[in-house]
Amino acid sequence: MRTEITPGQTSDYMGFDLVMADTLPEPSVLLAERGYGADSMRKKMEARDVLTQIPMRKSRKMRVGMEHSLYSLRNLVERCFNKLKNARRVATRYDKTAESFLGFIDITSIRLWLRLLST
Predict the structure, then answer these.
(1) How large is the angle between the packed helices 98-118 and 74-85, nearest 10 degrees?
(2) What value does the mean pLDDT of the chain take?
(3) Which residues 6+ apart lie within 8 Å of 4 measured at CB?
(4) 51: left (phi > 0), else alpha (psi -120 to 50), else beta?
(5) Cys-Cys link to 12, which of 3, 4, 35, 96 (CB 3.0-4.6 A)?
(6) With 0-12 CB in 10 A as exposed, 13-18 as middle and 19+ as buried, what is 71?
(7) Is the pTM of this model over 0.70?
(8) For residue 40, which of 6, 71, 4, 13 has the smallest C-alpha distance?
């Protein structure tokens, strides 16, 4: 998992470039919401041979298909974020520095992973 912090007013486009850096292992599928459906993002992922499953915006002129059964797995990611936000310190961001906030996200993620392993 990779986490990056951006200012609150930053669009999804800025965060996408940070998270999808070339230093990560190559993904096979990108499941994302409509905010990531720009042609430039789709082309970047296509150049890396990544299957994109992003719903279209209603105003999109060139239609793009999507496999709904594969996109439904995105629900697992959303539930993971919900579990992370159950940690009050993550949801309200008490930490003043980005390093301590990211560290607590890592600790909370490890706690969730260990809970999954124990069941």
Answers:
(1) 110
(2) 81
(3) 15, 18, 19
(4) beta
(5) 35
(6) middle
(7) no
(8) 13
CA dist., res. 11 & res. 34, Å (int)? 12
CB atoms within 10 A of CB 18: 13
Of 81, 36, 70, 28, the closest CA to residue 54 belongs to 36
- Residue 65's Cβ-side half-sphere holds a number of Cα atoms within 13 Å equal to 3
pLDDT digits (tens, 9 = 90+) for 1-11: 667 777 777 77
Distance (Å, whole) CA 76 – CA 80: 6
- With contact defined as beta carbons under 8 Å apart, do 90 and 108 qualify? yes
**For the chain, what are the domain ranges?**
1-69, 73-119
State in Å, rounded, how far the first CA of the chain is from the last one: 21
Helix (H) or strand (E) holding 25: none
Taken in order 31, 68, 47, 50, the sign of the CA dihedral is positive
